[in-house]
Amino acid sequence: xxxxxxxxxxxxxxxxxxxxxxxxxxxxxxxxxxxxxxxxxxxxxxxxxxxxxxxxxxxxxxxxxxxxxxxxxxxxxxxxxxxxxxxxxxxxxxx
Length: 95
Fold this sequence. Notes:
Elements: H1 6-15, E1 18-23, E2 30-36, H2 38-58, H3 65-94
Antiparallel strand pairs: 1-2
């Protein structure tokens, strides 16, 4: 018998379908019979990660975040000031 090369063994292990059988617990008869290619178990998560990375890189902010930080700090100070004003006016209204 001829010995298989490394490429043929890799192909056989990853692309040839494997049978998965699910047995019903009560009747002990096969409930489902699936044929799964092992390469799919690795490719599906890889595709999801690749799509996520591409979507994340496509929707990057238009300005660098370091340029937006001073503006954020200034707006946060305004929000805090307006929040304090609102709280003090509500306190004055209750009196």
